[in-house]
Amino acid sequence: MDTNSDQTIHDSLTQKMTFSDILQEAWKSIDGIKWRTLVLFIFYVIATIATQILSALFLVAIIGTLFPNIGSSKLFITIALTLPYAIFFIFPAFFVWIVITMLLNKTLARPYTIEHARRICFSKFKKLVGLSFIIGLLSYVGDILPSYLATTMPAQPTNAQFLIYGTLLFVVGAALFYLMFPVYLFSGPLLIFRDKSISEAFFESYEIMSHYWGLAILGLVVLFLVVLASVCTLGIFLIWGLPFTMMYFAILCREACGLRACPQLLR
Predict the structure, then answer these.
(1) Which among 28, 87, 107, 228 is least surrounded, fewest beta carbons within 10 Å?
(2) What angle in degrees, to the nearest 10, is found between the helix axes of 34-58 and 90-107?
(3) Nearest to 23 by CA among 227, 237, 226
């Protein structure tokens, strides 16, 4: 691992921006990227829906044909969908990488067009495919495991059963959040901007997050408030709120990964 890179991250950890600093910069930085972010978000939603459909079609056409006798098993269907979902997830994930790259370029005073961000991402194509596949697996497990555990609860549970299942679901949900959130937030920027390997980006995400849980959780609070305000305004506030929230996390990534302190490492 690059010693200079590690030192830069260490320096960034000792010079944290405050929550209010990030909010102010995020609000000032959304000019010029609102509609680009919204367009990419719409494509991401479409691609995600397509991923769900393609995964289901794969299950029906391939798995159902090969294993007609056990294709109706809920557990089998759940397991069988894992691999196709992770594979198809690579497609929507690239819209996320492009958005992240565009916003980080904006925070670093670099060209931040969609085309420029796309070229950067495709220059890391192989590594991003691998990272997207891993995140797809984590996402699928995070989606189905709590739901599957909930389906095993008795139809009319006793108070003790309800307490046990509730505690179990909380523990599983907290563990999945702890496992997935750092990777979601920091692995992409580390791989794209610092040219880390998949394993380095994966494990360094946890190291970095250990110093930034507070600001990351506050970012989720901001996201919740944005969603709430968007619902109350019939989606109108989303025009400003979504880019603002994503810019918040982009600035957090820039600071946490030490990108501003070492522009020479950017590609």
Answers:
(1) 28
(2) 160
(3) 226
Q: What is the pTM of this model?
A: 0.82
Judge contact between 97 and 128, C-beta under 8 A. yes
DSSP state of 261: T
The DSSP result for 177-243, as a single string, is: HHHHHHIIIIIHHHHHHH---HHHHHHHHHHHHTTTHHHHHHHHHHHHHHHHHHHHTTTTTHHHHHH
pLDDT tens-digit map of 56-82? 777 666 665 655 555 455 555 566 566
Give the sign of the dihedral formed by CA 175, CA 176, CA 179, CA 184.
negative
pLDDT of residue 74: 57
What does each C-alpha distance from 157 to 146, 162, 173 come to in angstroms? Answer: 17, 6, 20
User: Does residue 8 register a pLDDT over 80?
Assistant: no
250 sits in which H/E element: helix 238-256
d(CA 251, CA 216): 11
Shortest CA distance to 104 belongs to which of 116, 92, 122, 93? Answer: 116
Q: Which residue has the tokens 């600035």?
A: 251
- Nearest CA to 230 out of 215, 247, 245 is that of 245
